[in-house]
Amino acid sequence: MEWTEHKAPPLPILKDSTIQDDSIYLYGVDFMSTKYVENYFKRFSTAMEVEGEPSEFKVNWINDSSCTVKLPSAEMAQKAY
Questions:
Q1: Cβ atoms within 10 A of the Cβ of 53, count?
Q2: Of 25, 23, 30, which Cα lies nearest the Cα of 9?
Q3: How many domains does the chain contain in total?
Q4: What is the model's pTM?
Q5: What is the pLDDT of residues 16-75, one digit of tens each?
Q6: Is residue 71 part of a domain?
């Protein structure tokens, strides 16, 4: 298996798309599981809790190569980015 190959191409941004300022788009997560992505974002959970924000986030898979991570707020998404 080639590690440089992606299972799916990135999706184009459509003209009528809306920006989700509380989410982060990840591409190239072909060989990551939901648990891997969750574990990465758990490092931000402590910071979120300290600032009084709920620490939960949600991973939404788009295809085998892309996902978005929805965070509690736009501010938390920007910090995680």
A1: 17
A2: 30
A3: 1
A4: 0.75
A5: 989 899 999 999 999 899 999 988 888 766 555 555 555 578 999 999 999 999 988 898
A6: yes
